[in-house]
Amino acid sequence: MFRLICLILVLCVAESVYAGKITLKSVDRPAEEVFAEVMRQSGKNFIYSSDILKGLKVRVDVKNKSLGKTLRELFKGTDIEYKIKGDNILLMRRKKEKFVPKRSISDPRLRDTDSIKVGILRDVIVDGSRNKTLAMNSTDIGALNVSKDMIARTPVIFGESDVIKTLQFEPGVSGGVEGTAGLYVHGGNMDENLYMLDNIPLYQVNHLGGLFSAFNTEAIKNVDFYKSTFPAKFDGRLSSFMDVYTRDGSNKKLNGSIRLGLTSGAAHFEGPLYKDKTTFSLSARRSWYELLTLPAVAIANSINDKEDDDFSFGYAFTDVNAKITHKFSNRSRVYALFYYGEDYLNNGTHTPEDKKNDYYDKDESRLRWGNIVASAGWIYDFTPSLWGKVCGAFTRYYSTMSTLTESATLNDGEKLNFTSNKVSSHNSISDWIIKADFEWRSSMINKLNFGASMTFHNFLPSRDSRELVADGVTTVLEGNGMDYKAREFNIYAEDNLSLGDRLKLNFGLHYSLFNITGKTKFGLSPRIAFNYHLKDNVAIKGGYSRTVQYIHQLSQSSISLPTDQWVPVIDSQSPQVADKIAVGAYWNAGNMFVVSVEGYYKWMKHLVDYKDEYYLLPPDMQWNAVLAEGKGTSKGVDFKISKEFGKVSGQISYSLLWADRQFAERNGGRKYPARFDNRHKINVLVNWKINDKWELGASWTGMSGNMITLPTQCWVDPGLAPWHYDMLLKTDINNFRLPFYHRLDLSFTRHTSHGYWTFGLYNAYCNMNTIAVRMDYSNSRFISAPDENGYYSYKMIPVFQKIKLLPTIPSVSYTWLF
Description:
It is a single chain. The chain is about 10% helix and about 55% strand. The chain has a 22-stranded antiparallel β-barrel. Strands 8-15-16-11-12 form a five-stranded mixed β-sheet. Strands 42-41-48-47 form a four-stranded antiparallel β-sheet, with no helix packed on it. It folds into three domains: about 1-95, Phage tail protein beta-alpha-beta fold (3-Layer(bab) Sandwich); about 130-690, TonB-dependent receptor, beta-barrel domain (Maltoporin, Chain A, Beta Barrel), CATH 2.40.170.20; about 700-818, no CATH class.
């Protein structure tokens, strides 16, 4: 206790000494790098025109100086002026004096002078591009920072802006099934992406089978996304890492927004609880599909025959984000956040009481699934060069499914011979987490990141129960589904080193332990990357990353469903491992365009998937007994040209991809292409600010179709005659590619004095893409021939029909700002 009190006293003294002071040393470093350090120490943001810092190198040496004195030293001898407005530092060039010759002695402005000084100083408020900085100055390959505005500008289905659907326009990223918020990065599976909410894992990120993601745009501040090389801080997934940072709330006044759309509504409120010290941010989103479907259900039931059962349907999802932040000083603050998201779906049929039948039956299904996240942390600048964050968190994903079947005979409204059968299934994963992250900048050329975390997992892959009522007797059966407790420990360190003006190096190491059922598995994940500037506006990068994954999701579909289960590696299973090398070249063309070409090769081992015909195994078989272990590779090239400033902004990208899998217990041990091996993918994303009132957004995507498995022949048992021909001849997995996919989406934004209207058009030219195929039995061709015993057997050469789903879908919403 005495040591703790001493430590607190030392921190208080340090805070009183260093609060509001800046220590900085730079010898001819790029201005953007120096600004980043000033922003970190002061908490201020730099706002400037993109051409102000062109070629600017900074030489400065200050120690424990105020922000004003530091800025005076930074811009001494330059033509740059600054103004501090709230949390922002506005930069502008000093206007040159322009002399106008005297025109008339009668002009009072020119009386008693030969010339006059003309020009008005205006604030230039144009944000510097963080993505340009990531591309040109960082060692990260394939990294992206997504702002809330970028998300809102991307046209999407039903007008529901979505960060995951925005990322689907990045090269090397596939969306899976049309219209869904899937994310398949560089040939990986959906469970190989780590989604985080303020650095806390989120296990279920989709609503309605992936039609929408769980991230409410109104609650988002910005998003960091990594797909090729990874900071040492991140591990636990093979393909990508996405960290969503939520808004802290304004410390000046209450403000927010309310959005009303065709399928859902959202509200956001933020403001000070205690001025300049405590802020809050609250966002909520709710769908109203159940209200939209009520009239259709009522009409359908009203026209049913009197003997037919009525049916019911209802679906809704809800999101709530809340965050409170308290600022003790410029160097110390604490926060607490909460997230709740849930989906609810029910459907069924039943015999209504007003229909005169001699029987009663009811068949109902209910599904409920969602996430809960709670986190609290302390962020502290111990010294101007040492920053730290400590937090604790709880995160949980859960899914509950139940079916209820009832039947009885009716006698004057009384139910006789009543039977009831209710089957329920549960699965969940919950984590308790404690973690600490630190950043130590020992000098302007060296920065060290390090930290550790401890996670206590609890897995419930599946637990079933059954309640049977018959002859007045109730029988309850409980399944033997086991839960698994595991402990995971992670520690990492990473050094960022600048060697001169042209070369930057990054060295990192992530070590992890995973203990479950008395066994400990471990992973060592080295990281290395470099950035070398051939010229001030041309850079090349290279890097290697290893990632280790201890948990995976068992999924029987290509869309996100509540039946998907998160399970750990147990017994003799090994964690999944991926090794990836990547290279890239980057060109900053006139501070207007950033052009990048990135190549990669990834090889994976200990991948997990279901065995062939796993469904033929006994239903009480342990879940890990139906799994196969295999390997895979992916390789490709990502090209992108982007423009982030001006009235017209956007990007054009192209990706070339090969991805394959190989399992001893799948496909006869033969290699086969991954389902989302989309060989070619082209994306065009454009935003045009026509004037102060109107904006136009347009996106076009085209890509090679997904891979699916189709039988080449069917056969029939001679004793079953040719009408029973659904026994399929076994064939290679993913042996057929769907047709080329392409789609145009449009959005129009009309700004008003109090908000803005958003009009959307999904699939504008109504190209109904093929998302699946089905067997066309009526047009399939039959072949019959006798065998050696004279018995005829039948074969069918199948014909397939394309399944097309989504036509042109309009949308409209209004967002009120206050």
